[in-house]
User: What shape does this take?
Amino acid sequence: MLVGYDVAALGQGVPPMADYNIENLKFLVVDDDANMRHLVTTILSSLGVRNTATANSAEKGFGQLYDFDADIVICDLRMEPLDGLEFTKMIRNHDTSPNRYVPIIMLTGHSELSAVEQARDAGVHEFIAKPVSATRLYAKIKRIIEHPRAFIRTEDYFGPDRRRRQDPDYNGPERRKAK
Assistant: This one.
């Protein structure tokens, strides 16, 4: 599905920063703010994406995943009545989840460390603080493509491996056993 950068796509609106032709990827954008949904879908369109779906709530976004086989989900952190963290946990843990493994990019105006940690611990792949730009969004999409993360299950977590790097000096209770 993901292919190398197509030089011919330059004349079709794909910014020259693009290393990948992402036009065939499907994106689901979930945000309770109509202006933000429009902005994100416009950015995706400027990156060459042809297939996006939107939802104005976590519940509708979850339902949309049954009919729209998204390759990547972009959701807002602060939504009502369910927020992006609850939405992510629904995708990762609900018995009837249509795709527990879909990469999720959390988009929010709340970039304090606690929000980033909560998103990571809910099962988010990437985190973008607003204001969002095409360059920043594309960088997160590229990271998902180039650095796929294994999914792990612990007593209280299912999602992408939260460790971005290996620390040989880590001796905590969940340290992996050497083979």
User: Anything to note?
Assistant: The chain has one domain: 3-160. The longest strand covers residues 26-30. The chain has a mean pLDDT of 86.
